[in-house]
Design brief:
- Keywords: ATP-binding, Cytoplasm, Kinase, Nucleotide-binding, Transferase.
- It is found in: Cytoplasm.
- Its main location: cytoplasm.
- By secondary structure, the protein is α/β, with parallel strands linked by helices.
- The protein folds into two domains: 151 residues, Nucleotidyltransferase, domain 5, CATH 3.30.420.40; 183 residues, 2-Layer Sandwich (Nucleotidyltransferase, domain 5).
- It contains 13 helices and 14 strands.
- The strands form three sheets. The chain has a seven-stranded mixed β-sheet with strand order 3-2-1-4-6-5-14, with helices on both faces. A five-stranded mixed β-sheet has the order 11-10-9-12-13, sandwiched between helices. The chain has a two-stranded antiparallel ribbon with strand order 7-8.
Length: 354
Amino acid sequence: MKILAINPGSTSTKVSYYNDGSIVEEQSISHATEDLQHFQRTIDQIDFRRDIILSFMEEKGISPQELDAVVGRGGILPPVSSGAFEVNESMIHYLKHVTTIDHPSNLGAILAHEIKENGNEQTIALIYDPVSVDEFDDVARVSGLKGIERKSIGHALNMRAVAMKVAREAGIPYNEATLIVAHLGGGNSISIHHKGRMIDSISDDEGPFSTERTGGLPLKYIMPLCYEHSLKDMMRIYKREGGLKSYAGTSDAREIESRIEAGDEELRVVYEAFIYQIAKGIGELSTVACGQVDRIALTGGVAHSKAVVSGLKKRVEFIAPVVVEAGEHEMIALSKGAERVVLGEEQAQQFEYK
């Protein structure tokens, strides 16, 4: 079983080669700013990134002809269910010409298709658990202002992979388990998985602040700022200059912890608030299942921090046992998802846009 997985980021492309149950080659290929700056839109980088992937394959002795599947991280599609989707012309058209959000994950499906075109007749191109996975209950969509609907946007690929792994290791079928997964990184997402569906989540613009994103803010104090700054500036502040970075001047949690250990009392309070807000988000989602939660999982880069894990356990372990799955699991999640489709254990869905 030979599978190539592709995960495009803003300044890098992660590529892995999966063979009979495990990843045997993996590389995060960085892209220099000067190589990207002349592309007006991210989608214009298709040829550039495809050629880099083909070079990686040639260097590692991976022939497109031997691939059973090529799987890319799914992009900003309309709300879809979880699982696998075959890359088709409708999906490619939507990502190239319709989607209004310029996001690097939009490249995943198209790059998978491009590599598949170099493969054999049996090679399939897929995406798995795209960013726009939406399995919310209707009650979770209500925002508090008619005409504005809460949407499921977050780290679905990593969170579902972690949820399935934690459930399996706990001896509980994913389709019967209730789990809360907190993805802690540059942006924070917290989701609740109930009987095989991600029924609600707290996105990085609603809940706890992260290392560089503001999270939810007091609305009445934010409104005046919107008249003082452009939309572009406000998006930059929320997404790149908020959170711990706005208080500490850095988004590096390790550096912040070192400064706290050296006696920075003001930063200590901020860091405690960082942990406090994540715990509040976990507690908030526990009410969705009336407190009946089997496991709480912590994932993402910040889950490597002993201080964060310890602080969260003190606050939320009364709800359910806390399991740490630090880092990201996206490449293996893509590969395993594609493998299930090739083996016939899971049916690939068809994307339709009307």
